[in-house]
Amino acid sequence: MVIRSLLKPKLWITLASLAFFAVALVHQGEQLRQINLESTGWWLLLLGLGLTCLSILINGLAWRVLLDWLGQRPPGLALVPLFVRSNLLKYLPGGIWHLVERVRVLRPAMGAGPALAGVILDPLLIVAAASLLLLAGGWQDGLLLLAPLPSLVLLLPRLREPVLQRLERSKAAQLQTAVSGDLPVDGSGRGGAPWWPLAAQVVFVLIRFAGFACCLAAFDLMPPAVPQWLAGFALAYAVGLVVPGAPGGLGVFEATLLLRLGSSVDEASLLAVVLSYRVISTVADLLAAAVLAADQALMQRLHPAP
User: Fold this and answer.
1) 35: nearest Cα among 266, 301, 295
2) Torsion over CA: 153, 231, 245, 284 (sign)
């Protein structure tokens, strides 16, 4: 098992990304220590934290829209709190425990097959949404031609269902032991295109980018133009989801962004941006979960169950 794990490409990509990021930090260490934030910069980081928290809630709402589209929204189950609470589990080694928790909770209400489809389609839609936003960056050495492909796959049932079932088989093998039971591979069971779930995920990625843009503004790092930053962020976010070897995509997102835009801006400032954004995104996950937990506890105290 250990040898099999070491042979996985995702593991090596993650290790290479972390090594690249670490080398950049060492190389730019002196310049990083010379960067000082003014009071305006701290306020911008705080705004970025608020926007990133909001994006997590939007992501939860987008997941609810997806389950509505599947016709499998469980009555009486608070989906957004479930999504936000389980989101913290992505930081555990393995990168699957947030999926395990969602399948575990959804399975009694909607069945194992639909639960698995609803959980796997969410990150696929995020990747498709982020890929669409690559269009903002123009040609980008041919990336423009690839940007619509993930959305095209998800919007056309003849393409979506075979891809989804293949991914379900792969994830079912990982999740079955953890959720204690068989996970049928049935696909989405839907014809048509998930336009609304995809649109909701586009909104999520845009708000996520707005939080990142606050970090850029905090360190006075706005050139190149906003569309190029959006395209670079979208690419890095999509790659971080596709290669989730490290907890929360740690290292992969940062390395992709550095490789894509590091040559066009001051590298030390970009490192400061990605470091601050990593801290903000992690704190936002914790804060969003804490706020929703406190809200649920307050509602239960004000309106106790009979």
Assistant:
1) 266
2) negative
| pLDDT of 306 | 58
Residue that has been written with the tokens 């290292």 in this structure: 251
- Rounded Cα–Cα distance for residues 39 and 43 (Å): 6
Cβ pair 292, 85 in contact under 8 A? yes
Angle between helices 79-87 and 267-302 (to 10 degrees): 140
Domain range list for the chain: 48-298
The string of pLDDT tens digits covering residues 188-223 is: 889 899 999 999 999 999 999 999 999 999 998 876
Instruction: Name the DSSP class of 73.
Output: P
> What token pair was written down for 260?
């894509």
Q: Alpha carbon of 130 to those of 68, 202, 239, 263, 298: distances in Å?
A: 22, 7, 10, 22, 36
- What is the reported pLDDT for 35? 77
